[in-house]
Amino acid sequence: MKKILLIVSMFMIFMIGYGKGKPLDVNMENGSKIPSFQLRDFNGKYTNSKKIFNNGKPTLLIFAAEWCPHCRSELPDIQKFYEENKENVNVVVVFTRRKTNLSSTKKYVEESKFTFPVYFDADDSLMTGFKVKTVPYNIKIENSKIQEILGGTMQYDAIKSAFYVE
Questions:
Q1: CA-based nearest residue to 154, from 145, 144, 97, 165
Q2: CATH number, domain containing residue 85
Q3: SS3 41
Q4: Could you say which DSSP state residue 23 is in?
Q5: Which residues contact 47 (CB under 8 A, 6 or more apart)?
Q6: Total structural domains in the chain?
Q7: Cα 149 from Cα 26, distance rounded (Å)
Q8: Concatenated DSSP letters of 138-155
C-alpha cells in the first residue's frame, strides 16, 4: 500500500510541476518568431497572442508602467496613433506589475482615458520572456515575427514612420 501511495504521490508531483508549461522565452532578434502566449486584461480575461499578432495587421507592442515618466510622456501619443490607425495597426500595451499593482494601473488608464487595448503582466512572465529591462519598450510585430525593436520612448511622428503611416 505504501508503494502505491508513493507512486501516486510522485505522479501527482510530476503532473503539477509540468502542468504550468515552460516559461515564455522570446528570441529578440529581428525576424524571430514569437511563441504563442496569453495576454491578461485588467478584468482577468485571457487572449491568445496569435489572435492579435496573426490577424493580418502589424502590431505595436508596448511594455509600460503607470509610474514611469517616459511612459506617461509616450502613452498620449500612442493613444493618438491608435485612434487614427486602429483599423490598420494593432496596438497592445502591456503594463508591468513592477513597483505597482493592478489597481493603481487601472486607475491611471481610466483617468488618462486611454482606449487602446491594455493588459497586465501580473506575474512578470511577459517582461521576462521578452527580456524587457526598462519601460517604455516598443516592438513592431507582424505575423507573430519581430520586425523591429523600436526601443524606448517614441513620439507620435516616429510611431507613424515606423508603421509607414502618412
A1: 165
A2: 3.40.30.10
A3: coil
A4: P
A5: 38, 39, 41, 119
A6: 1
A7: 13
A8: EEEEETTEEEEEEES---
Quote the CA–CA distance of 65 and 94 in Å, as a whole number: 8
Q: Judge whether 14 lies within some domain.
A: no
0.70 cut: is pTM over it? yes
Q: What is the pLDDT along the chain (166 residues), one digit of tens a residue?
A: 656 554 545 444 444 444 456 899 999 999 999 999 999 999 999 999 999 999 999 999 999 999 999 999 999 999 999 999 999 999 999 999 999 999 999 999 999 999 999 999 999 999 999 999 999 999 999 999 999 999 999 999 999 999 997 7
Question: Can you tell me the distance from the alpha carbon of 92 to that of 69, in angstroms, rounded to the nearest whole number?
Answer: 19
- CB burial of 83-110 (b: ≥16 within 10 Å; e: otherwise) equals eebeeebbbbbbbbbeebeeeebbebbe
Query: Domain span at residue 56?
Result: 24-162
Q: Which residues contact 33 (CB under 8 A, 6 or more apart)?
A: 27, 144, 145
- Contact (Cβ atoms closer than 8 angstroms) between residue 84 and residue 166: no
